[in-house]
Specification:
The protein is of the alpha/beta class and 354 residues long. Helices cover 36% and strands 14% of the residues. The strands form two sheets. A seven-stranded mixed β-sheet has the order 5-4-3-6-7-9-8, with helices on both faces.
Length: 354
């Protein structure tokens, strides 16, 4: 067990079958089958296992920064048997309870911590782990969260009236979506809708929210959808405009992009040379943030081109393992439609130069 960290308890029903080898560009085999009584199917599972590098070897130490209900973690622990270790982080207490039960058979090889991956180095320090062999960040929402109306992450007309505007990954901390809609000024709301939701009519919707809340509070998904319809934003688009509005609020509530940037900045210090960083994104904002930050860490020097000699002192820290994002195959998308938008990017920690 890692010093100073709790170990899980309970029982597990999980049964996983994974393919031994895969590489970018290879023909897609049928999607990895995960047969279990647990919610949420891990996305791009066989591709992650094949691209773990040293994180998939016996004795490896891996961090699953979004352990959720433990699907990826269970497979990585099986791959790194008999003595590989895993630290699983998640802000969602409900997910951690399931993961603790599911991963209990692995005993002291597992440590679960309720924390954001933005606290990666702090958690590693508290657990007495100086360096790791792989870091997995599976961004976005789990089925456990999406399928629970009381969490407020998803709107559906039939349940919107009873779905509170919460959207917090950690329900014990921070303001909810309803709090932000009540307290944020019009300019801030408009910026969130425009930047995080990429929503046409963002300023019009922000004005409508401010006007509506003067009359009555916005407490449920139905309240917010009523304002979205009245504002007439996002009409004619393939997605329901509410999808973009809810995405924007969720990102704002949980500071998702800020947390991602913080974790990516800490990854080089956390990974030992040769260690792998794996990031699964589900929308363009996350994917662009991961792509750009990995590229910056691969480039190193930020001096202007007119300066002949580097003076910034920054050196390349990562190299891309996948030149393009890895996407799920047709079989996986048929089995799990929520995997459709997933994009996996992988980078490797470079050797340190004295």
């Amino acid at each position: 067990m890692f010093p100073g960290c709790p170990s899980p308890g309970g029982n597990s029903w999980g049964v996983i079958s994974v393919r031994a080898a895969w590489h970018p560009g290879a023909p897609q085999s049928p999607a990895t089958k995960v047969q279990s009584r647990y919610p949420h199917q891990p996305v791009l599972l066989e591709e992650c296992l094949a691209l773990l590098g040293p994180g998939g070897e016996p004795g490896a130490t891996v961090v699953d920064g979004t352990v959720g209900t433990g699907g990826h973690a269970e497979a990585m622990l099986a791959r790194s048997a008999p003595d590989g270790r895993l630290i699983g982080l998640d802000r969602d207490a409900d997910a951690l309870r399931i993961a603790r039960e599911r991963l209990a058979p692995f005993g002291a090889r597992v440590t679960l911590v309720q924390a954001s991956f933005r606290d990666l180095l702090r958690v590693l320090g508290e657990c007495g782990v100086p360096r790791i062999d792989a870091l997995l960040l599976d961004l976005g929402m789990s089925s456990l969260q999406l399928d629970a109306p009381e969490r407020g992450f998803r709107f559906a007309e039939e349940s919107a009236q009873d779905a509170p505007l919460d959207m917090r990954m950690d329900r014990s901390a921070g303001p909810s979506a309803a709090d932000l809609l009540r307290d944020s000024d019009e300019a801030t709301l408009a910026r969130w809708f425009a930047e995080y939701g990429e929503l046409p009519g963002a300023y019009r919707l922000a004005r409508a929210v401010v006007s509506e809340r003067r009359e009555r509070p916005l407490r449920t998904a139905a309240d917010l959808l009523r304002v979205v319809r009245a504002a007439g934003v996002g009409r004619g688009r393939r997605h329901h405009p509410g999808t973009l509005v809810f995405q924007a609020l969720r990102i704002a509530v949980n500071d998702e992009l800020g947390a991602l940037e913080a974790a990516l900045d800490q990854a080089p210090e956390a990974l030992r040379p040769g260690g792998r960083l794996l990031v699964i994104a589900y929308h363009s904002l996350e994917d662009r943030a991961a792509k750009r930050r990995i590229a910056a860490l691969e480039r190193g020097c930020i001096c202007p081109p007119e300066i002949p000699v580097c003076v910034c002192g920054r050196r390349p820290q990562l190299r891309r393992v996948t030149r393009r994002a890895v996407r799920p195959g047709e079989a996986e998308v048929r089995a799990n439609p929520r995997a459709r938008s997933a994009r996996l990017r992988v980078a490797e920690r470079l050797p340190e130069v004295a």
